[in-house]
Specification:
Blueprint (H helix, E strand, L loop, with lengths): L4 E3 L8 E3 L2 E5 L4 H17 L2 E9 L11 H23 L5 E9 L1 H11 L4 E5 L13 H9 L4 E4 L15 E5 L4 H17 L2 E9 L9 H14 L12 E7 L1 H11 L4 E6 L12 H9 L4 E5 L1
Helix pairs in contact: 7-8
Amino acid sequence: MSSGRVTARDDLVSPVVQLQRILVATDFSSAARAALDYALGIARQFNSKIFLVHAISAGVLHYVSPEASDEAIRQATRFAAREMQRLVDEAGCAGQVQEEILCCGGVWPLLQEFAKTNAVDLIVLGTQGRTARKRQLLGPVAEEIFRLAEPPILTVGSLPEAPKTGAPSLRRILYATNFKPHAERAAGYAYALEREHGSQLTVLHVVEEAAESPKSGHELVQDFLIQRMKRGIPAMCNGKCEPSFQIRFGEPAEHILGLALAEHSDLIVLGMRSGKRSAAQLPSAVAYRLACQAPCPVLTVRH
């Protein structure tokens, strides 16, 4: 078992990858349970501390009179405490998690303040699309967290088999890059996880072009980009990591999802641009689609 501090050094990569403090946001749904199971597997591997957090929305007060508000909060807190205990018992993680019930306000502002106060390194979030067949949308709370959170976010849907004991299965990791700074920061996590787990890492770059674009010159472009990807291998991995490199031409999300399915990937890693964001702004279209539709967990890293 490692110390929970995985070093990945490179001029373009954040020097230290930390997974010491993990926040699992739960609404007690089946998707949130899958997120907890997966977080437990990570925590056991990296000796991390898990905060299992439920935020009571101010919405519980919308339909009660001011005089009844205190009692409504007490009832919501008691219900949350019972559900939290049930979740911990089912997951078999008593003594391994710190349970927190936050009250009362917007769910994301409460979680955001908690994450800052406790220097959270990773947020793990269960996702469940609102259009079940194609899973095109996250729920409103998950979408707000995905859009605004600064720490890396691991989104866990209902498809993966979440680990009950030991480390999560990370035999195959797919890292998607567009060579921009946020993608390079995500590379630190991809290569560090490959090295830690002995995974097979695939590095993918998709050259955006229309389907009807001419194919002449693809081979030359491929060779150039693969050499560029090889130069991006962190110094700590030289001679130790053996990633495979893939170049595709077309629509990025389509090719990332297709390759993840074809290779039976256990994790997708990608970067997202950081900066000032508001609740009205949409997240990266590619990252958002992957979080909704990927056949495995997705680790999204901001820069």
